[in-house]
Amino acid sequence: MDIRKWFGELVHARRRELGMTQQDVAAVGGPSYATLYKIERTDEPVGLATFKKLDSALGWTSGSAARAYGKGIDPIPTASESTPAQPPQGESHSATAAYHDDEAAGVDSELAAALRSHGVRMIALRSDGLSEQSQRAILELVERAREIERLDHADDTPKLFPQG
């Protein structure tokens, strides 16, 4: 099978598996709707920046889309729960910086995992463009619902709009 055709089918299947439309993928930082449409139709050669966007939006580990396109290797989904290990004591500055990069990637991974939920994506997409006051009201509603359903403790909840 032609690699472009296989890759286009792979991207389409993953997007459908996640319950995402082409617009949803673009909205969460993936390639534009037009680019994704061309990839899925096998009309578009894919570049490095697009591979990175596909990895992020489709919940694949870094480099997975490029490996799939270049070598025909199935992409590796990100772990839904990623807790980076603490760096050992006495490491160099560059090793500590690398740890923090990995920690940030864990946050991205956590966000990607949350965005796999259709409901989470729809709340995020429909909230985009609303005033800060409206976003605060939505956040308060979500926090109250989480409290009622006992999903987390109030002290553990990150604050989107810190009081100041």
UniProtKB/TrEMBL annotation:
InterPro entries in alphabetical order: Cro/C1-type_HTH, Lambda_DNA-bd_dom_sf
HTH cro/C1-type domain span: 13-59
Stretch list, region Disordered: 71-103
Molecular function as annotated in GO: DNA binding
SUPFAM superfamilies tied to this protein: lambda repressor-like DNA-binding domains
Ranges annotated as biased composition (Polar residues): 79-95
Signal peptide limits: none
Protein name: HTH cro/C1-type domain-containing protein
Source organism of the structure: Nocardia terpenica
High-level lineage: Bacteria, Bacillati, Actinomycetota, Actinomycetes, Mycobacteriales
